[in-house]
Fold this sequence. Notes:
Blueprint (H helix, E strand, L loop, with lengths): L22 H25 L6 H11 L5 E3 H7 L4 H13 L3 E5 L7 E5 L1 H21 L6 H24 L1
Antiparallel strand pairs: 1-3, 2-3
Amino acid sequence: MDTDTGTDTGTETGSTPTRWLTGAEQLAWRTHLDVTRLLTHRLERDLQPFGLTMNDYEILVNLSESEGHRMRMSDLAAATLQSKSRLSHQITRMERAELVRRENCDSDKRGLYAVLTEHGWATMRRVAPHHVDSVRRHFIDLLTPEGLAALQESLAPVARHLRAERGRA
Length: 169
């Protein structure tokens, strides 16, 4: 390996050399992984007293921000990056807690909507201030406005790339 460029200089015929991460790249990558796991764990713990998981909360947010507090199940699966099967199980659990209900789609007899119930809407209004406080304490308030802007600017191309890749899959 060429330690200056981080490139594998192996002699395998016809293979593309591996572009190993430099020390700085490795540090950035591992810091990102660490922050992602730790922050998700912390936010999840802060939702537990309300009987919610991060998946529950994400679904409640999506439904609360949708017209009529409803979304087609296929659109909700895409928005939450869940398989239709996994989302169906999640919605079943949330139906038992009376947070959401399913409704048939009049225009497509095979289609279903996930709909936020009154209890789900009340839960969302009750939990949201606590969740926002948790996001502020464990993320937003730890960064300067300049750092936050730089983070957003740095991650936006990654998000665009991954959304495009997902659309091709």
